[in-house]
Amino acid sequence: GMGIERAVAWICGLKHIRETIPFPRTIYRLEP
Fold it and tell me: How many structural domains comprise the chain?
C-alpha cells in the first residue's frame, strides 16, 4: 500500500509542479 500511495503522491506532485510553474511566470510577465 505504501508503494502505491507514494507513487500516487509523486505523480500528483509532478502535476501540481507542472501546473504551478507557469502561473508565477505569467504573473511576473504581465508587463512585457
Answer: 1
Is the whole-model pTM more than 0.70? no
What is the extent of the structural domain holding 31?
A: 1-32
pLDDT for 32 beyond 60: no
For residue 3, the one-letter residue type is G
Residue in the structure block whose three cell numbers are 512585457: 32
Distance CA 3, CA 22 (A): 30
Place of cell 510577465: 29
For 27, the 3-state DSSP assignment is helix
